[in-house]
Hints:
Layout: E1 6-13, H1 17-22, H2 27-30, E2 40-46, E3 53-60, E4 63-75, E5 79-86, E6 94-103, E7 106-114, H3 119-141
Antiparallel strand pairs: 1-7, 2-3, 3-4, 4-5, 5-6, 6-7
Amino acid sequence: MSAPDSLTLTRRFKAPRERVFAAFTTIEAIGLWLGPESCGVTGGRMDFQVGGTYLYQMKTPHGDMELRGTYREISPPSRLVFTWQWVEDDAPLTTVTVDLTEVGEDTELTLTQTGFTSAESAGNHAHGWSGSFDRLDNFLAA
């Protein structure tokens, strides 16, 4: 993890870049992997286009919460940039950048999230994304 107001995580997946990118493009796919094991998407909507928004209803250990954001950049199959904000707890608006790079037949995903107001929040999100990537790895292997 880098500075307290941001985090960067890198993970390699045994899947083509197009398939990894596609995992971010529909509510059905997102619902199968977003969130660590103790969390999950239970519903929502998404308008996957630049300027489009998403809203995910999430089950978490802290109760039901909603997550919202706006797509700022969509460059298939290499890059996504979107905002990220938990609705219920007055969380700051953060920005998530996902870069996908081909490494042979694999894909390296680098996620950077900026705009945190504390190191604790950045750490909590690092934990959440790490668990999500474990689930994404299983999703892509299926």
